[in-house]
Predict the 3D structure of the following.
Amino acid sequence: MNKISLLTLKTFLLLSACVLFINSVPPPEKIRVAVFPLPPLNFIDSDGTAQGLLPDLIRALQTEENWDVTFVPGTWSESLERLQAGEVDLMTTVAYTPERAEVMDFNQEATIDIWGQIFTSANSGIETINDLHGRRVGIMNRGMNGQNFISTADKFGVKPLIVKFGTHEEIFAAISAGEILAGVAPQHYGLRHATDYNLVPTTIIFSPFPVYFATKKDHNKLLLYHIDEYLKAWKADPNSVYQERMDYWMHAGGLRSNVIPKWFIWIVALGSVLSVVLIFLNQYLNYQVRTRTREIELKEKQYRDLVEGANSVILRIDLAGRVIFVNSFGINLFGYKPEELVGIQLTETLLPEIRYPGDDLISSINLVLGDNKMYKLLENVIHCKAGNQVNMQWSNKTIYDSNGAPRELLAIGTDITEKKNAEAELARTTSFINAMFDGIPDVIIALDTDDRIASVNKASRTILGWDESEIMGDQPSILFASPDQFPYEASEREKFLKSDSALPQLFHYRRRNGEVFPGESISVPLHDADQTFMGKICIIRDVTEKQSLENQVRRSQKLEALGIMVGGIAHDFNNILQSIMLSGESALAAKETPSEYENHINDILKDSDRAKKLIQQVLTFGRKSEVVLKPVNIQDVIREALVFERSNFPKSITIKEVVDKSCPPVLCDDVQMHQVLINILNNAMHAIGREGGEVEVKLGLVKNNSPDHITALKQSSGEYLELIISDTGCGMDDETRLKIFDPFFSTKVVGQGTGLGLSVVHSVVKNIDGWIDVESVPGEGSVFYIWLPVTDKLPQRQAAGGTPGSRISKFPILFVDDEVSIRVASSKMLRKRGFTVDTADNGLDALGLFKQNPGKYGLVLTDLNMPKMSGVDLAENIRSLDEDVPIVLSSGDLSTEEMTNYKLKGVQGFIQKPWSVDALIKYIGQFTIDES
């Protein structure tokens, strides 16, 4: 009996019985149903009424069962929470998961299958799931579509940035507002509402999943049973309310009208002429048949278009492993004709017999049919007709017959060959990078965006001694040597870690066992394709051996150049000593003539000052002299140097001065800057020679972007003084120009110069963060460019008037020096200036004098190197007796590092030999009280 005849019989019986109503449902009960926004399945319209497929089915149940139903609106997450709190009794459109089954009961009959799909704005460039890597993608909080997307993306190695929302409307609104790039939504919802937000669907579609009615665990199971009874009957009846509402909501508002409206049935039932009713009914049923036929044909066409237009392979396989159906996409992908696949065993076409013999294939199919959830996603290799292979991922679903027995398997396949190839290539690349990472002999440390250690290479573990797990997540400061050992590196470390420069810098690091070593370091930032900062790579090269070799080479070079240096110093000293001797003899001969005598003595003092400056030059080169940086007006230093040099320059050389007197000061040592000018001017004088020429000195203020040379400076912003010294001398070729700043290099004959002049100039300029360069052409002269960073500090002005020491309070001094002439002359001059002076020729005797008269002395001035007890040991002993008395150390070769160590032992001041008495009194005055 066909369905139309059955419907006719049912109608006849209904009319014959007139009004017969059988109510077998239990008494009415109040049911609270949660409704969350998922149109067209369920939603609340603008009037506050629950609408959609599932609310319509509930209303049908309400009519049949006489239930008291209340719809409770809310979001998906709110509905879940209300169900568990007992605030609602029933939820619609719930996907089954093992986790949810722990707290929920589900009915057996699924209401509908839901496909997930990615939606985005037009022209977003999203074509495949790989395009979503690292991009912001919206999903509904706790929604199954979102979880399926995350799982699918993970299988492809795609890592999107997930943003969760309460509803699908919020997701679409966020895409439209540009807050996220794309969003996940059920396909039936997205296709209906995408245009409302100017969005378009993508080809990224996920495997479908069924949804059910659900109640709280162990609550209202009878309610689920009733729902299942109706759903089974409705699904079996093509004219049921389920089918009618399904067509209405899932096909743009409904493609058919209600079958046999109840009002018509009741009117006909009240009729008295059965024949007229039967004729009318027959005509009506014929109309319904035609309508249903058209609808079925339309629906078949729609499903056919969907299947044939899908970008996935769709296979139907019977229980014997034969292909029942394959769509056009599968035909094109596999290269077989339809007749070569349909009705044929898979092992004879797509799957190799060796790997999938008939029995094994049937066993595999039975496993999938028996547990769809466990075997929902499977992967295998398909052999195409052309001989090539493709990697496929299959989403499987069992199709059951009317008796509930498995009838066939529906498999939807995605070609993941490109993904597999990409994974393999990524694995090869990763393996290569890891091998290279671990094969580099230098320390490589990867830092994350929070500047914490994320990874280290094999060499790091070998050189540093730290296991990766011990320092993972720590700040890189754990690898540096203690700041107390190298305080000058502390601030540079911070700059190094924050900088984007790959220029190498030298720092000291410590191994796990506490050993400290020097490391040449670079820091390189890492960015992804979108220029998003991902962290840094720090590379550290242990240069202990390199420094040792460099020191050996340097010592060897110095030894090789020692003859040049000694010859030059001897030449200069011989000239100075010769002048001193002649001036001394002249003074003795003229002692009866005071004015002439005084002139000769002044000449001796001038030559002594020349000798002092020569020693200072040697110590500066050897880094032995103390350098005190202070604000200095370079224009004043230039004026003094030119006054001095004009007396030395021959008349044939003209000195031209172009100096901006308003230039701001520079942080430097004025004595060293004077030395820089004198050395360059002297070189200019020698380059010009006797023929005569011109030397020009220019000084002006420039910005950091002009000239181009300043780009090489350490500072990236600020102002600089530009000092240019040019001459019209013989010039230099490129080979000579590149060597002029090398220690001991000299163009003069052996014995005529030390070769230290320009190397000292270079050292002084670099030590104050300046830059020096030279341009020269043989026969056309040379131009020296010096750029010095300015400071906003002002130079200190010396107080006018008065003789050194005239306003200093006089106090007893303990003067200690093992050189008799220094001790006698100094004490005599100090006593003439009003000081009381006790002397000793070694530290041990001086300590005895101090112990005899504790509290007597206002200052202790001691030499460094003496017999019996050194000046440092004397200072340490005196400091244990008196914490306040000033102690000044006098020496000719003090380095900054030595002075720092001596201060820790009680020394408060340092004065470098040779010094004049006026300079000594001026220096010790800072330790006294001004009488004014």
